[in-house]
């Protein structure tokens, strides 16, 4: 998870644990045999995938890395990690070459992927694997509305006119990492059913713990209320409620594995 003025809320993030876990397991299913070495859960958050990593690779030391103290505290409570490290991903370096660097929905918070991904690949033990999954929702209405509304309502604080997606296409990661080993890269669009919520549109409930955070943490309470009202109105048009109040929410993710 990335750093910000306010720490992550494990409770808010965990509301959609099932929907967030499915792509994590889809990525894990594509990791084959590994050499000797530890498994690194890079951007481990609250440890949502720890048990599955241990089940998939029994007997290996699991090392969690995250920069959110609140998330690491939750991960520590699981008693599944051999080691937990608080660090920014762009600065982190392993002490020993890992067998697997696994990163689920974390590297989209880190800039300069053409530099980051080869650096991570270079840390691996011979025969090791880099496995990455990231949301690719930059142009989706759910995320575009956040930028457009914030820039319109608070132009003194937000200018997204030059902002581009942190995540490239699957074929771009394939081309970037092919010189380092065998690459598999793909994209999947999940049609997520978001259950009804009482206080807000279901899509807002989904984004408030992730994509909304960098915006609302810069707003006062009154400004936040106005912003959320405008966001809700736009969401209602783009993602109409079903009869029971649920929403079908398309969500695209990019995946790749590299075996060095």
Please state the CA-atom Rg, rounded to the nearest Å: 19 Å
**How many domains?**
1
Which CATH C-level class is it?
Alpha Beta
Give me the secondary-structure category: alpha/beta
Order of helices and strands: HHEHEHEEHEHHEHHHE
**Average pLDDT for all residues:** 92
Number of helices: 10
Binned strand content: 15-25%
DSSP, total strands:
7
Strand order of the largest sheet: 3-2-1-4-5-7-6
The CATH fourth-level homologous superfamily = Vaccinia Virus protein VP39
Major beta-sheet overview: 7 strands, mixed
The CATH architecture is: 3-Layer(aba) Sandwich
In whole angstroms, how far apart are the ends?
25 Å
The unreliable regions are: 1-5, 7-14
Can you describe what's shown?
This protein is an alpha/beta fold. The chain has one domain (10-259): Vaccinia Virus protein VP39 (Rossmann fold), CATH 3.40.50.150. The chain is 36% helix and 20% strand. It contains ten helices and seven strands. It has a seven-stranded mixed β-sheet with strand order 3-2-1-4-5-7-6. Mean pLDDT is 92; it is low at 1-5 and 7-14.
